[in-house]
Amino acid sequence: MEELKAELKNKIVEVLNLEDISVDEIQDHDPLFGDGLGLDSIDALELIVLMDKDYGIKLSDPKEGKTIFQSIETMAQYIGANRTK
User: Fold this and answer.
1) Which of 23, 52, 65, 67 has its CA 20 to 30 A from that of 37?
2) Which CATH superfamily is domain 2-82 in?
3) Taking a C-beta distance cutoff of 8 angstroms, is the pair 45, 3 a contact?
4) Angle of helix 2-15 versus helix 41-55 axis, rounded to 10
5) Cβ pair 61, 69 in contact under 8 A
6) pLDDT tens per residue across span 4-55
7) In 16-71, where does DSSP find H-type helix?
8) In the beta sheet, which residues pair with residue 33?
9) Helices 41-55 and 72-82: angle between axes, nearest 10 degrees
C-alpha cells in the first residue's frame, strides 16, 4: 500500500502540473481539495481520467468521487480494492 501511495503522489504532481508542491510535502491524510492541496473540479476530472487509464477504474457517480478523492489514503484504499490493471 505504501508503494501505491508514493506512486499516486508522483502521478498527481506530474499529471496536475503541481509545480509548487513536491511529492515529499504531500501527506497521506492531507485533503486533496480545499485547504489541503487546493485542487479544483478540473483537477478532479484529471484524477478520474488517471484512475481509468492507469488502474482500469471507471467512476460514473460524482458522489463516489467525493469520497474517493478525500486524500491519498482514501484513493489508495479504493484503488487497491477495485483496480483491474
Assistant:
1) 52
2) ACP-like (1.10.1200.10)
3) no
4) 130
5) no
6) 999 999 999 999 999 899 999 999 999 999 888 999 999 999 999 999 999 9
7) 41-55, 62-68
8) 39
9) 30
The string over 52-69, giving b where at least 16 C-beta atoms fall within 10 Å of a residue's C-beta and e elsewhere, is eeebebebeeeeebeebb
DSSP letter at 3 equals H
Are 84 and 49 contacting, i.e. CB atoms less than 8 angstroms apart?
no
14, burial (CB in 10 Å: exposed 0-12, middle 13-18, buried 19+): exposed
The domain locations on the chain are: 2-82
Q: Looking at this protein, which amino acid is placed at residue 52?
A: D
pLDDT at 60: 82
pTM attached to this predicted model: 0.92
